[in-house]
Design a protein that fits this description.
Elements: E1 3-5, H1 15-19, E2 25-28, E3 31-34, H2 50-54, E4 61-63
Antiparallel strand pairs: 1-4, 2-3
Length: about 60
């Protein structure tokens, strides 16, 4: 499973893109998206998902 970004809640601050250890988050069109093929949910690297931990809006980076 991968994470996804709820576009309607996203402020487009970019924090998640820079914190993602698997480089799975990119700005596409007018929103940030998570590439499910690259997203590892930070398993084996961190105790919490880095996108969710740095996002200023709660519950914007969520399991897909």
């Amino acid at each position: 499973m991968a994470f996804k970004i709820i576009a309607s809640q996203c402020t487009q601050c970019g924090a998640c893109e820079y914190e993602c250890p698997s480089d799975a988050i990119n700005f596409k069109g007018e929103k940030y998206v998570v590439d499910p093929k690259k997203c590892t949910e930070c398993k084996g690297e961190f105790d919490t998902q880095q996108c969710a931990s740095v996002c200023p809006v709660p519950k914007t980076c969520v399991p897909a």
